[in-house]
């Protein structure tokens, strides 16, 4: 009988060092940074074709902010999944504990493969081979971690020290975990040859993890069990009980359990390290992304409308406008609709300092792009001025905005593609291409797409106040709250 394997994908990070592409409401795992698929989609497909294993649907651990985008991205690649929403962040150990509780039952005790959603792996075959080695170890009740062969004295990763080989498994004894080192220490690790980068990928049986977390942090297991037992189903999502999960201690898989394995705690199962040589990167910074992507003969990486002259080892991304670079080396230039980043690659780690400044100034560029995704589609605020705002709105086939009204603004809708079904007060009617309609302030209304092609409209808002918190929501098919109280929410 084939062993059961449940992928557990952790998708709660924000990837601030990849600003301005990565934002709080649309982080790096949702972006197509290396090819046409997002990092999340690539992670979900990483086990496709794995032989001799019964791979189950993945469990995705995420939060409120990304739930609809995650569901849509998985739908596009035909991946059924269990999406569990954390009401607050508690790090990776509680996330894994929730996944283990969700995956196990009286009948099943599957092997869990825990993967961050925002990493890249270029050699899928080699990765699947390593997974098969890990499964044989997990079947023998071991806690398995995967260590990446280092090829540089990287100071941005944690390290794992290994010992002797474990029989013929291809795995190594786990000696210890070490924190991100300085450059001299990282160079010493590289020369020693027995240190690996900590990939953040783990594997074990669900019952083995629950037993280990009970031994190390019983209060964490108790809080997670209560949060899972009292979880509610909201459409396609499982919502953990907020008060119970908030009481859970915050800790990482490494600190909570894995470091104690390295101390040879006899109360815990044995640990093992499976080496990885799979083209792995956590793409934590712009220079890491530059090293991951194919480069031309001058070492340059470009995307979008970019022109370079006399440039070397430069990454230049354009999202909306022409980006022209002349005579620069080892630089990062990233253009989005509302922000431009220019940085030297050696200072790529310090992009986070800009993010910190944006937070201090409460600037909107920290949270979202100009283009905002919603469960029904997306909108792009293309122009704004005193008492007016212009949006481009795309509604997916069969989707609908909430039934709502505004106290301070009126709206004009012009259909440029598809057919709109409009509810205005007690009337429902169709608006076709090149036609328009008007929604006075204070009137309940709804926009729907009854067709089979995306509906695209231009919305012109006018009024004394145009904030996104001026929404009174009466009804919503996506289960969103009816009272909108902040500018982070929308129709």
UniProtKB/TrEMBL annotation:
Catalytic activity, reaction form: alpha-D-mannose 1-phosphate + GTP + H(+) = GDP-alpha-D-mannose + diphosphate
UniProtKB keywords: GTP-binding, Nucleotide-binding, Nucleotidyltransferase, Transferase
GO BP terms: GDP-mannose biosynthetic process; polysaccharide biosynthetic process
Database matches in SUPFAM superfamilies: Nucleotide-diphospho-sugar transferases, RmlC-like cupins
Domain called Mannose-6-phosphate isomerase type II C-terminal: residue spans: 363-476
Molecular function per GO: GTP binding; mannose-1-phosphate guanylyltransferase (GTP) activity
Family: Belongs to the mannose-6-phosphate isomerase type 2 family.
NCBIfam families: GMP_PMI (TIGR01479)
Name used for this protein in its record: mannose-1-phosphate guanylyltransferase
Organism, as annotated: Nitrosomonas mobilis
Lineage: Bacteria, Pseudomonadati, Pseudomonadota, Betaproteobacteria, Nitrosomonadales
Underlying gene: cpsB
């Amino acid at each position: 009988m084939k062993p059961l394997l449940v992928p557990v994908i952790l998708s709660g990070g924000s990837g601030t060092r990849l600003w301005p592409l990565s934002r709080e409401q649309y982080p790096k795992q949702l972006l197509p940074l290396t090819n046409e698929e997002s990092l999340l989609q690539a992670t979900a497909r990483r086990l496709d074709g794995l032989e001799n294993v019964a791979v189950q649907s993945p469990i995705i651990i995420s939060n409120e902010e990304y739930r609809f985008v995650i569901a849509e991205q998985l739908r596009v690649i035909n991946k059924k999944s269990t999406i569990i929403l954390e009401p607050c962040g508690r790090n990776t150990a509680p996330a894994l504990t929730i996944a283990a509780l969700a995956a196990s039952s009286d009948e099943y005790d599957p092997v869990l493969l825990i993967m961050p959603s925002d990493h890249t792996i270029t050699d899928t075959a080699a990765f699947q081979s390593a997974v098969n080695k890990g499964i044989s170890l997990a079947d023998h009740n071991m806690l398995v971690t995967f260590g990446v062969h280092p090829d540089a004295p990287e100071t941005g990763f944690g390290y794992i020290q290994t010992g002797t080989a474990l029989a013929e498994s291809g795995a190594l004894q786990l000696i210890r975990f070490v924190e991100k080192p300085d450059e001299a220490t990282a160079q010493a690790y590289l020369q020693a040859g027995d240190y690996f980068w900590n990939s953040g990928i783990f594997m074990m049986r669900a019952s083995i993890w629950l037993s280990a977390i009970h031994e190390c942090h019983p209060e964490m297991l108790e809080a997670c069990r209560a949060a899972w037992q009292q979880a509610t189903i909201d459409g396609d999502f499982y919502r953990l009980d907020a008060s119970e999960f908030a009481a859970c201690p915050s800790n990482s898989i490494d600190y909570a359990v894995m470091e104690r394995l390295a101390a040879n705690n006899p109360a815990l199962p044995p640990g093992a390290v499976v080496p990885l040589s799979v083209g792995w990167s956590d793409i934590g910074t712009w220079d890491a992304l530059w090293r991951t992507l194919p480069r031309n003969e001058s070492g340059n990486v470009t995307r979008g409308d970019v022109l370079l002259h006399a440039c070397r080892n430069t990454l230049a991304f354009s999202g909306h406008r022409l980006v022209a670079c002349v005579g620069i080396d080892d630089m990062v230039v990233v253009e989005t609709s509302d922000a431009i980043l220019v940085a030297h690659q050696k200072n790529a780690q310090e992009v986070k300092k800009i993010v910190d400044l944006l937070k201090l100034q409460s600037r909107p560029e920290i949270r979202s792009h100009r283009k905002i995704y919603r469960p029904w589609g997306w909108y792009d605020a293309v122009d704004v001025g005193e008492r007016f705002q212009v949006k481009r709105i795309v509604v997916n086939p069969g989707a609908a905005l909430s039934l709502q009204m505004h106290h301070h603004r009126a709206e004009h809708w012009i259909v440029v593609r598809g057919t709109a079904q409009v509810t205005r007060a007690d009337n429902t009617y169709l608006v076709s291409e090149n036609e328009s309609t008007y929604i006075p302030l204070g009137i309940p209304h709804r926009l729907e797409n009854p067709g089979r092609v995306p509906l695209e409209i231009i919305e012109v808002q006018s009024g004394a106040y145009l904030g996104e918190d001026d929404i009174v929501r009466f009804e919503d098919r996506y289960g969103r709250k009816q009272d909108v109280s902040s500018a982070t929410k929308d129709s």
